[in-house]
Amino acid sequence: MDLYGKDFLCTQEWEVEELMAVLDLAARMKRDRFSPRWSRVLENKTFFMFFYNPSVRTRQSFECAATELGGHAQFLEPGAMRLKTEKTAGETIEDATQVMSRYASGLGIRILEDKIGAYGEGDDLLRQYARWATIPIISMAHDKYHPCQGLADIMGWAEWFGQGPGHTLDMGVLEGKKLLMTWGHGALARSWCSVQEGLLIASRFGMHITLACPEGYDLDPQVIEWTKTNCGAHGTEFQIVHDPCSGYEGAHVVYSRHWMSPRAYVDGEFQKQKEVEMALKYPQWICDEEKMALTTDAIFTHPMPVDRGHEVTDAVASGPRSVIYNVAENRLHVQKALMALTMGNL
């Protein structure tokens, strides 16, 4: 399967067979991490990492991935570049991207809620870069989607319910399992990207989906429609509930994370403080041992960073059925595979 040069902005835009190609290679790379067969895949090649927002796991995992493939990851940020904006003069996206394409073999972009003035602007930005680039554009998390996180999530869940790390990855073990995607409270105003990607990729791999959130915390209608369509294609169930407990019943995977409301932007301004004040009114929306006892011996998953004591209790996040570190590790492996296939022509 030829994925060389293909952009990766949302898992929904890739065929399941293409996603499987990445996951299969990621599993092989994980089993044989430092094998010489991978160490020259990106030899003499550079991956540009353009960070509008800071990160922990994203920068670390992409830099490690490039190094282990024999390449180089270069950190970029807007403040160190002369780029045209609504308020400042500088290079257009067309000019910047055309030049970047002649230097690097791939470009990753990370832009989240506080660096935009309206939902969708981050996605639009990535698609503008993709329009002009002759190298693959990879989302390192933007306001709508976090496709690398989605791959790491689904790989980690399949490993748990299958034979575990170090064995052949069997994605079929997720078919018929139930994912609970539940809102979590806290002093936060987080993007929708990880939860939306989680819904999309889980429904592509045959999982039942329950989305739980307080009234007024609706997700992107397009993502909801895609999730319904994906579930329909597998004959699985998709439901939305607005209480903090009922969705746990029968769940195999519990994903508790805060996300902001659709009212987060007003007149081009991100209303962070208002979102935080509103979120703190829902302390009952926390994943705890009592709620987990309602599940079918579910695992707990989260893209991190975890807001312990708000989204989830320490007892659950650090418990024996938490896969948060397994999933975080998989960011390295799925990104190595993705870079190898889109940049290295493996």
Question: Which terms summarize this structure?
Answer:
single chain; 346 residues; alpha/beta; Rossmann fold; 2 domains; five-stranded parallel beta sheet; four-stranded parallel beta sheet; 11 helices; 14% strand; globular; ornithine carbamoyltransferase activity; amino acid binding; Asp/Orn_carbamoylTrfase
Written overview of the protein:
With 346 residues, the protein is of the alpha/beta class. The chain has two domains: 11-145 and 331-343, Aspartate/ornithine carbamoyltransferase (Rossmann fold), CATH 3.40.50.1370; 149-328, Rossmann fold (3-Layer(aba) Sandwich). 37% of the residues lie in helices and 14% in strands. It has helices at 16-31, 57-68, 93-103, 121-132, 147-161, 193-204, 221-234, 272-279, 289-292, 314-317, 324-343; strands spanning 46-51, 72-76, 106-111, 137-142, 178-183, 208-212, 238-241, 253-257, 265-266, 269-270, 299-301. The strands form three sheets. A five-stranded parallel β-sheet has the order 7-6-5-8-11. The chain has a four-stranded parallel β-sheet with strand order 2-1-3-4, sandwiched between helices. Helix 6 (193-204) links the parallel strand 5 (178-183) and strand 6. The longest helix is centred in the last third of the chain and has 20 residues, at 324-343. 51% of the residues are buried. The model has no long low-confidence stretch (mean pLDDT 95).
